[in-house]
Specification:
Its main location: cytoplasm. It catalyses: phosphoenolpyruvate + UDP-N-acetyl-alpha-D-glucosamine = UDP-N-acetyl-3-O-(1-carboxyvinyl)-alpha-D-glucosamine + phosphate. Belongs to the EPSP synthase family. MurA subfamily. Helices cover 31% and strands 25% of the residues. It is an alpha+beta fold. Strands 21-22-1-23 form a four-stranded mixed β-sheet, covered by helices on one side. A four-stranded mixed β-sheet has the order 2-14-16-15. It has a four-stranded mixed β-sheet with strand order 4-5-3-13, covered by helices on one side. α10 links the parallel β17 and β18. α8 runs parallel beside α10 and α10 runs parallel beside α12. It is globular, with a radius of gyration of 21 Å. The relative contact order is 0.16. Bound molecules: uridine-diphosphate-N-acetylglucosamine and phosphoenolpyruvate.
Length: 420
């Protein structure tokens, strides 16, 4: 097991290039199993979640080759050679996105219920309801979701009770190969949904409306390949660096960003007194002035992302005054508060609300990541803290941050990896 050792107290200074989006890459990798010909993907981050999904699709028969450090060539199988292996599926959440594509292409899927970070209950009822609405039989069997459809899936009108990202993606993918039209209402509007829809359309799918509340899919009998598809930049990695710059009262230029995707984060940082400037695909963050407390409510996109909530909590823990955070998406995303308190933060958690009283500074100590974004938040806390911090459970952080130590080192941070 690894640990990260960080000596804090220096402002982040310089330029950082943002990598491809984890959540878009994972969904697109699952979608590749529906492709009838070769697919080349670019801007794929080489992070552990991506490596695991690649192993899973290879196991079911896909041929996958790294063409460079961020591009992949994939050829999906005509028939699946094995079920997705349970031990790999359980390593992450996004493996639940195999169900829709496998059912649509092969008429059968036996996928273990997914794992991933312990940030809430995370049921799959909306996925199952949508796929069943298209004619699939879905059963739960000893921790596995087993889906079957004897004939082609049928287009249907499906209303999601909640705009779930994963359910929108699974049903949208399955609808691409269904017979007739699918109308999906109250869907998630996250940029990763739009990226996935764009990729599917590159394969010859007919998806319209991604990024709005209603997605319409005209099913086609087969999908083709794609000569080149570049995944969008990671808005959560962007947000994490922006918050890290603010927390260390630094000055940072982020390159290869889509500013629109990080607008909810920019808006909150500006409200806190951070200067944020946009220029094409670059963002400049300057936090050399006084900062103010802010209140945050996590919401589906374009609201404030739950995946940035922990990082903001770390930042707010050293801003004088009271900030209130309401977590509306995942009930278990305040575990980070206990670790921040070990560093001297004053945070009171009551159900879905956290009250953060800013303290003048945090102190370095030994702390452990409880999930991916909590890990990112602890890195931010360590960057601000006086003295040395050791962060354990780094495997959570490795799920989602490409070249984190290298990027931070270039920005002036003293960071190294050691054995825990
Ligand atoms: C791999 C990936 O893309 N992960 C992202 C995805 O997760 P994920 O796709 O799991 O998140 P969802 O949008 O589905 O979950 C949002 C809420 O809906 C609930 N729900 C979801 C499905 C369902 O069938 N029933 C149900 O009740 C969940 O428990 C949660 O409370 O979106 C989340 C919300 O933006 C992000 O935090 C994750 O980083
Ligand atoms: C919650 C996250 O990911 P996952 O859905 O893969 O657990 C995340 O990226 O913060």
């Amino acid at each position: 097991m690894d640990k990260l050792i960080i000596n804090g107290g220096r402002p982040l200074q310089g330029k950082v290039r943002i990598s491809g989006a984890k959540n878009a890459s994972l969904a697109i990798l699952c979608a590749t199993i529906m492709a009838g010909d070769e697919v080349v993907l670019e801007n794929i981050p080489d992070i552990s979640d991506v490596r695991v999904v690649i192993e899973i699709i290879k196991h079911i028969g896909s041929e996958v080759t790294w063409l460079s450090s961020s591009s992949l060539r994939i050829m999906a199988p005509a028939v699946i050679s094995a079920d997705p292996p349970c031990d790999l599926v359980k390593k992450l959440r996004a493996s639940n996105l195999l169900l829709g594509p496998m059912l649509a292409r092969f008429g059968y899927a036996r996928v273990s219920l997914p794992g991933g970070c312990n940030i809430g209950v995370r049921p799959m009822d909306l996925h199952f309801k949508g796929l069943a609405g298209m004619g699939a039989q879905i059963n739960l069997d000893g921790g596995f979701a087993v889906g079957k459809c004897t004939n082609r899936l049928k287009g249907a009108r499906i209303y999601l009770d909640f705009p779930s990202v994963g359910a929108t993606e699974n049903i949208m993918m399955a609808a691409c190969l269904a017979e007739g039209q699918t109308v999906l209402e109250n869907v998630a509007k996250e940029p990763e949904i739009v990226d996935l829809a764009n990729f599917l359309n590159c394969l010859g799918a007919k998806v319209r409306g991604a990024g709005t509340d209603v997605i319409k899919v005209e099913g086609v009998s087969e999908l083709g390949g794609c000569v080149r598809y570049a995944v969008i930049p990671d808005r959560i990695e962007s947000g994490t660096f922006m918050v890290a710059a603010a927390a260390t009262r630094g000055h940072l230029v982020l390159e290869h960003v889509i500013p629109l995707h990080v607008e909810p984060i920019c808006a909150k940082l500006r409200e806190a007194g951070v200067q944020v400037y946009e220029d094409d695909d670059r963002l400049t963050v300057n936090a050399t002035g006084e900062l103010h407390p802010v209140d945050i409510k996590t919401m589906p996109y374009p609201g404030f992302p739950t995946d940035m909530q922990s990082q903001m909590m770390a930042l707010l823990s050293t801003i004088k005054g009271t900030s209130i955070i309401i977590e509306n998406i995942f009930e278990n995303r305040f575990q980070i508060a206990d670790e921040l308190k070990r560093m001297g933060a004053h945070i009171k958690v009551e159900g879905r609300m956290a009250v953060v009283e800013g303290v003048p500074c945090l102190c370095g100590t030994n702390i452990k990541a409880t999930d991916l974004r909590a890990g990112a938040a602890l890195v931010i806390a360590a960057l601000m803290a006086q003295g040395q911090t050791e962060i354990y459970n780094t495997h959570f952080i490795d799920r989602g941050y490409h070249l984190l130590e290298e990027k931070l080192t270039k920005l002036g941070v003293e960071i190294k990896r050691g054995q825990a």
